[in-house]
Inverse folding.
């Protein structure tokens, strides 16, 4: 399916070296099987739940002068390279914001946490693994210190840091998010009422 000219801009999730990366389900929209609103708005209940379990503990435990938030922050890495971040954490003084800050951020967060993959990789990547590897590598090269991926289907977490140390862990083990602040995703989910 040729997609580069006919796909509405709202279905583009990120941009990789000038290549649009489309939202999961965009082909169903192009075939008339779904409406744009069905795939372009929001995340799944599970993604929302995991993201907010993590945010709750970060808001509670990080010092007040850290800045942590979620809202698919737009990240401008370079010309024609624009990503989004589910959760971004900045140490004190790292996030520069003013009335001029109406575009994507061109300042790397210290930590990015991604919950699941929300793109259709088939037009540009061979598989989802290639996507998250390349996205992680570009974020680290840009200056992000640590990238954390939570994969709900496999119940695993990838932690990649600026020292090129990458490790996959079960999500029921504690991981360091930033400095000495740790989380255990599975414990957070259970404590928030996740139904097993």
């Amino acid at each position: 399916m040729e997609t580069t000219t006919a796909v509405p801009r709202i279905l583009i999730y990120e941009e990789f070296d000038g290549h649009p990366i489309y939202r999961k389900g965009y082909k169903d929209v192009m075939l008339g099987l779904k409406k744009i609103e069905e795939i372009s708005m929001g995340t799944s209940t599970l993604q929302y739940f995991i993201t907010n379990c993590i945010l709750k503990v970060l808001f509670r435990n990080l010092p007040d002068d850290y800045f942590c938030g979620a809202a698919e922050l737009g990240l401008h890495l370079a010309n024609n390279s624009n990503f989004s971040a589910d959760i971004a954490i900045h140490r004190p003084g790292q996030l520069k914001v003013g009335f001029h800050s109406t575009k994507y951020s061109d300042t790397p967060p210290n930590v990015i946490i991604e919950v699941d993959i929300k793109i259709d990789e088939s037009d540009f990547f061979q598989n989802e693994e290639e996507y998250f590897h390349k996205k992680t590598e570009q974020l680290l090269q840009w200056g992000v210190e640590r990238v954390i991926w939570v994969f709900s289907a496999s119940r695993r977490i990838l932690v990649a840091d600026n020292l090129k140390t990458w490790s996959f862990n079960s999500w029921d083990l504690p991981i360091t998010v930033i400095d000495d602040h740790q989380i255990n995703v599975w414990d957070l989910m259970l404590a928030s009422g996740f139904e097993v």
Summary: The CA atoms of residues 76 and 82 lie 5 Å apart.
